[in-house]
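Tokens for chain A. Residues wanted.
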């Protein structure tokens, strides 16, 4: 079954599926039939983890800028010790692309990424046009099968404020 990445292509298709990142819903379309069909959905774990539902330390949530997914974003992420922790689920152990959707409306920024409490490196976040504009930055991470903890932290040496919309793993 085809995955569609925009709603109009999905609407014009005869069958397929579409994940609506705003509504957090998966739409499935099948050709009409009088017999019963079973649909097994695999790969929908690539849907994003919204930062506003993550574990938050010294940061807040907000919705006062446009173009976010879910119900808002993490705000007040601008000082040493500020931390966002995501519990993510991986079907397999191995390498994944971790994509951070962020806004850095004022300056270039940097954060440190931890996977299962192991420091896996710095992530450089180029300045976005303004606070209503979002960019994706991807790094490779190794996940265990099952539950993993991903932390995005303002560590020593990191700099400037960002907002985080979500992360995704593919
Ligand atoms: Ca803060
Ligand atoms: Ca969000």
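Reply:
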């Amino acid at each position: 079954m085809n995955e569609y990445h925009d709603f109009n292509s999905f609407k014009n298709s005869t069958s397929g599926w579409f994940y609506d990142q705003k509504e957090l819903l998966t739409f499935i379309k099948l050709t009409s039939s009088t017999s019963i069909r079973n649909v097994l959905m695999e790969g929908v774990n690539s849907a994003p983890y919204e930062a506003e539902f993550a574990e938050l330390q010294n940061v807040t949530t907000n919705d006062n800028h446009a173009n976010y997914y879910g119900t808002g974003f993490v705000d007040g992420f601008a000082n040493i010790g500020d931390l966002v922790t995501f519990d993510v689920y991986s079907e397999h152990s191995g390498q994944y692309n971790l994509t951070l959707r962020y806004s850095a409306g004022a300056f270039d920024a940097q954060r440190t990424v931890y996977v299962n409490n192991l420091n896996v490196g710095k992530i450089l976040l180029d300045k976005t046009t303004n606070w209503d504009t979002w960019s994706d930055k991807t790094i490779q991470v190794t996940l265990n099968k099952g539950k993993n903890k991903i932390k995005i932290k303002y560590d020593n040496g990191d700099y400037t404020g960002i907002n985080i919309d979500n992360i995704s793993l593919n």
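The chain has a mean pLDDT of 93. The pocket of calcium ion (ligand 1) is lined by residues 58-59, 76-79, 82 (CB under 6 Å).
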